[in-house]
Amino acid sequence: MKSISTIGSHSSLQILHGAKMEGFNTIVITDRKREGFYKQFNFIDTVLSFDKIDEAVDLINRNEESVLVPHGSLVEYLGQERVNKITTKIFGNRNIFEWEGNQHKKMFLLKTSDIKIPETFERPEDVDRLVIVKLPGAKGGRGYFLARDKVEARKGIDELINKKEINSEEDVIIQEYVVGVPMYFQFFYSPLLDRTEIFGIDIRYETNVDGLRRLPSSYGSLEPTFVVVGNIPAVARESLLPTALEYANNFVKNVRERVSPGMIGPFCLESVVTDKGEIVVFEFSGRIVAGTNLYTNGSPYSWLYWNEPMSMGRRIARELKNAVINNKLNMVLT
Questions:
Q1: What digits encode the pLDDT tens for the residues 101-134?
Q2: 162 annotated to bind ligand
Q3: 221 is known to lie in a ligand binding site
Q4: In sequence order, which ranges of 48-142 are alpha helices (DSSP H)?
Q5: CA dihedral 91, 94, 96, 101 (to 10 degrees)
Q6: pLDDT of residue 141
Q7: Which structural domains are found in the chain, ordered by start?
Q8: Has 206 been labeled as part of a binding site?
Q9: pLDDT in tens, 177-205
Q10: Is 71 annotated as a binding residue?
């Protein structure tokens, strides 16, 4: 293994910057329209560009001695069918992609991890409180909507079906809208150290739900949308951290039992913290999340483990380097 590669999007700059800091050659595979953007960074050794999305898999597979680091844009841009054709080794558990892309399987994995989650409604007709309806996949909140009752839930789902955003109501998940502060807890599980590290916390900045707060009440009521456009750093009360870490360790244990070969590397428990101090987890991401881009020089938590600048991208590369040194690459690749 000589190089680390990734798709040009999401958190690719952080991934490749961290890889270069740990001594790896770096490769980005990107849409030709973004080629010039990535060529300006001297920590990226090779820029491979494609005109059509089908060419991306060929470019990935061409680098057999490289390890591909996945992020949220991999499946969302390429699609699961193309990702299944990737023969290059992937850092992390590629089998988690299917679980992450299916809202029902995602929530099952959280629930069976003994993690507090919101109430879920099987049908729109069962809705009896404020809910949020979510589409499958890593869409950054696109298409999500709020419904106050079963009538609004049914209407919104039918509109998604008519727009061909989904095939049927089984594709979405209807989830109780928990009021509180959103906190996205970032973790890294190291198979080499058998350790779960709290790596950072972020809050997603969403349009237009966050922008609506700036409007005077005289502008009337506008429907909120939840498309993520940025991230804000956060530090939690220290008393919340033991519960967050307990949830993370429960999740790691459950994934090991249900999604072979288990959790490898970065993941995120996307949560709301209520006024009672409860952490309610409403989603997970089974790979690096864009909120870690806030911490290219290390987060307040990564410093506690490493006492040096440690981004999530560099942490991935450090795990790979240690796996090479100890001849244990099979523990971190699928």
A1: 888 899 999 999 999 999 999 899 999 999 999 8
A2: no
A3: no
A4: 54-62, 72-78, 80-83, 96-101, 103-111
A5: 120
A6: 65
A7: 3-90 (3.40.50.20), 119-176 (3.30.1490.20), 181-217+226-331 (3.30.470.20)
A8: yes
A9: 999 999 999 999 999 999 999 999 999 88
A10: no
